[in-house]
Amino acid sequence: MSVMNHASPAGTSGCVLILGPDRSGTSLTANIINELGIPVKNDLPADLYNEKGYWEEEELQFINSKLIEYLGTISRGNPPRIPKGWQFSKDLAYLRASAESVVTRKMKGEKRWGWKDPRLCITLPFWRPILGERVDYLICVRNPLAKAMSEIKRDSRMSFQSAIRLWLIYTGQALINTRNEQRRLLVYYEDYFDSNSQQIRKIAQFLSLDDANVNPAASIVNADLKHHESSIDDLMGSMEVPYGVKLLYLWLLEGKRNQIKIEEATDILSSDESILQPVWQVPWYGRPFYYAKSKIRGI
Question: I want to staple 209 with a disulfide (CB 3.0 to 4.6 A). Which of 204, 220, 230, 238 is the partner?
């Protein structure tokens, strides 16, 4: 788990946003912070793939759906084009008014509240001015190979390349769109199963919450939630995964030991978004693990 930008301590009011691609632990993380004491609405019904619910708020989800439609509908791994300054368009005035109304009402009802929607990775620039000064970010990270396999199981019509493409775009945009934020925490999906209580305690500490609820929150996690598992060697050895995906994931893993790597990676992504282009035929495609490892060490 990597904590970045410690300049501002967590407060007792404001919003906690949970970002990350689908099937990366966003629903699990929302469930956990709800148990820790930050209310997160769970309007969408549970199903076979999320047996404890999706932890998404219907009213906010509707607005996000309209924003995605405006940008260009996401369909089985085809993320929208994201023009510069799109969030200021006059065409979005009616959605902006609706968003302000919902957020104002929530702030009056709850001093602190959580919100999970993977599409926030894309739509955050629209929401950021509306959410006020106090926003904490939990960015969920999962091995992209395991994420892709989980996505395909949920939607058999989605291709492997589309699932990988979504991981790359959503994870990259989550980093770019929180680049200048004072408080963000990377939450690694695999750590829920390797060091459960320790990870949840770090989340509680990051959000300045009493750790009295850590053990009840830890009981939410069980091995049955982890249907797909892939190692770093599986990812590096896959000829189906493009170089950019491998490189970004290695950056994120390096961030566990050295948070400067995350900050540097975010700066690079922000200055050269071509890294996020879902291109399979790239110069270093298919090179072995040690090459990608040498690249990350050189950042």
Answer: 204
Give the whole-angstrom CA distance, residue 261 versus residue 257: 9
Give residue 96's identity as a one-letter amino acid code: R
75/216 Cα distance (integer angstroms) = 37
Residues 6+ apart with CB under 8 A from 266: 175, 176, 178, 179
Burial-class residue 108 by CB neighbours within 10 Å (0-12, 13-18, 19+): exposed
Judged on CB neighbours under 10 Å (0-12, 13-18, 19+), 109 is exposed
pLDDT 10s digits, 4-25: 443 334 455 689 999 999 989 9
> What domain range includes position 178?
2-227
Domain membership flag for residue 253 = no
Q: Tell me whether residue 246 is in a domain.
A: no
Question: Residues 124, 220: contact at Cβ < 8 Å?
Answer: no
255, 262 in Cβ contact below 8 A? yes
CATH number at residue 83: 3.40.50.300
Domains: count for the chain: 1
CA distances from 38 to 3, 31, 72, 115 (A): 19, 10, 33, 10
Tell me the pLDDT of the chain averaged across its residues: 82
Does some domain include residue 234? no
Give dist(CA 147, CA 169) in Å, integer. Answer: 13
